[in-house]
Amino acid sequence: MNILFVFTNTLFKLGSWFPLNPNSVSAMVSPSTALFLSLLLYVSFFAFFSQSESKSHLPKVSLELYYESLCPDSVDFIVNHLTKIFSTDLIPIVDLKFVPWGNAKLQPNHTFICQHGPNECFLNTVEACAIDIWPELGKHFQFIYCVEDLVNQQRANDWKSCYETLHLDPEPIKQCYNSKHGKQLELRYAAETDALKPPHKYVPWVVVDGEPLFEDYENFLSYICKAYYKGTDTPKSCSKVSYITEVKAENEHSDCDKGREEPTWRKVSSILSSWLHKMNLGDPI
């Protein structure tokens, strides 16, 4: 029996303490706090038990998320949808990869501007550094989720609190985004995003085993199941009717379309912010 699935069921029983459904949270704990604590519980157990997972030799389904840190649709997907994978027995069969670039655009001298301004460029780089410094999925996903959850609460300026929340050393991240390395990571993600076939049209852009999900990205679990189908080896979660019969969603991407024109004031703000950062006058956020 899949050991991760057994412990996942156990976690569901423990979930009554910090339920994932905000509507059932007691008045003593805020919905956002309860959701985050529950996620930490799931991801922490995943990170520990995945090391001893007996089926780790089986081929995995690639799940790639091309996104930008301040896009409302990207934030919603990470905070409210992608977390579902950690409450199933699917995570051992998935190779999840984050690509924090989105609709950013390269400028002369390898500088870049972002769709939602300089703060987005900065947080994209911070999250790129986190992925590089903490390559284990369980670790960098917790950090990315923490940052994006604060963005979702309109508290992006508090992103550094995630270090204390997750008991992480901030120095490696600070050194990364203050050096050329952070920029090099972003340029690499820019190249990966530009190489997409077909090209992405908006973010979040979710790709399962090389196939983009377009507007149906919120149903990513069903696509993982279809891609992994191995008869008796198929995870039990894939037998759930809801993963297979959900109707495709018609999502709107008014804020995060690739072709959306960048306002002049935002372009100027990005240029000034980049100049100030080079002069060591502090972080954009």
Walk me through this protein's architecture.
GO terms for molecular function: oxidoreductase activity, acting on a sulfur group of donors, disulfide as acceptor. Belongs to the GILT family. It is found in: Secreted. This is Gamma-interferon-inducible lysosomal thiol reductase. The chain crosses the membrane at residues 28-49. Helix 1 (3-14) runs antiparallel to helix 2 and helix 4 packs across helix 7. The protein has helices at 3-14, 31-49, 72-80, 118-133, 137-152, 161-166, 171-177, 180-194, 220-228, 242-245, 264-278; strands at residues 61-67, 94-100, 105-106, 112-113, 205-208, 211-212. Strands 2-1-5-6 form a four-stranded mixed β-sheet. It has a two-stranded antiparallel ribbon with strand order 3-4. With 285 residues, it is of the alpha+beta class. The chain has a single domain (3-278), classed as Glutaredoxin, CATH 3.40.30.10.
Key terms:
285 residues; Glutaredoxin; 4-stranded mixed β-sheet; membrane; Gamma-interferon-inducible lysosomal thiol reductase; transmembrane
